[in-house]
Specification:
The two termini are 18 Å apart. This protein has eight helices and four strands.
């Protein structure tokens, strides 16, 4: 797995590797996520798996595809380029004994673009920037293929134009970001199609995260797992950095934390992650 805060569990590739006791390696389940509970990687690994799965999750909060093209919020953030070239290739590509993966039953998943879009959509030359970003994105996927990867999952950027962060910026910003998200997701589709046409033994899956999020934002009870959501537009500041439990209730917040779709200005709470994993599993199967 590579990606950003929607995916990270704060895995450290120098510490405990995935095993039967903890299929995500480190830290202890569900890890340090941005969703105040398990994220889609957690759920996919432990809840919606038909067999035992081990997951190496190299995602890093705040990541963009390439920091040199779209800067993250801090220079210390590891881009997808760094996740692939500095962590995956030197540590895992050669099938080490502590994670001896095989091509036929290993899935390489990439969920990236939220920060690329969010940090660049308002720029006049955003389309030019995204063209360069996708050249690098495609190159990184090619490097994964050359290392032996054969099964690829790509996730669309969700409708973060509906997040409190963009809503606060006004209707014009929402519309501009929505257009940029649509363009990004179209590029993801093209990237996946090009990968599988270039390499006949490469199998690609594209998951429409945007549609999944939109469905729940419009109708929380479209899924029983998200039906407890009572507020899909705002968040409570007291919850924004996480809470002692997945279901914490502070009186000044009106609702328990798990009844808000948004944990903070940009990240959903774990219920949306549950549905995301459930639908990915259905698509993969």
């Amino acid at each position: 797995m590579v990606g950003d805060s929607y995916t990270t569990t704060s895995f450290n590739d120098t510490l405990a590797q995935p095993d039967a006791a903890n299929p995500l390696g480190n830290p202890a389940y569900p890890g340090y996520t941005a969703t105040n509970g398990p994220n889609w990687v957690d759920f996919l690994t432990t809840t919606y798996n038909k067999t035992f799965l081990e997951t190496v999750n190299l995602a890093y909060g705040g990541a963009t595809v390439d920091s040199a093209l779209v800067a993250p919020y801090l220079p210390t953030v590891l881009s997808v380029k760094q996740q692939v070239q500095d962590e995956y290739l030197p540590v895992y590509a050669d099938h080490p004994s502590f994670f001896d993966w095989s091509a036929n039953d290993t899935l390489f998943a990439t969920f990236i673009g939220i920060n690329d879009v969010g940090n660049a959509y308002s720029e006049a030359n955003s389309s030019t920037i995204f063209n360069l970003v996708f050249e690098e994105y495609a190159s990184l996927m090619d490097q994964l293929y050359q290392s032996g990867a054969r099964n690829f999952l790509f996730l669309y950027v969700p409708p973060v134009n509906r997040s409190p962060l963009t809503v606060a910026a006004g209707a014009a910003a929402q519309a501009t970001e929505a257009t940029a998200i649509a363009a990004w997701n179209a590029n993801v589709t093209h990237l996946a199609a090009n990968l599988s046409s270039t390499y006949s033994d490469a199998k690609t899956f594209v998951f429409d995260t945007n549609a999944a999020f939109t469905q729940v934002l419009d109708d929380p009870c479209s899924h029983p797992e998200t039906c407890p959501y009572k507020n899909t537009t705002d968040y409570c500041v007291a919850y924004e950095n996480g809470t002692p439990s997945w279901y914490t209730f502070y009186q000044n917040c009106s609702l328990p934390v798990d009844e808000y779709f948004w944990l903070n200005v940009l990240h959903p709470t774990f219920r949306m992650m549950n549905v995301t994993a459930q639908e990915i599993a259905a698509q993969l199967s």
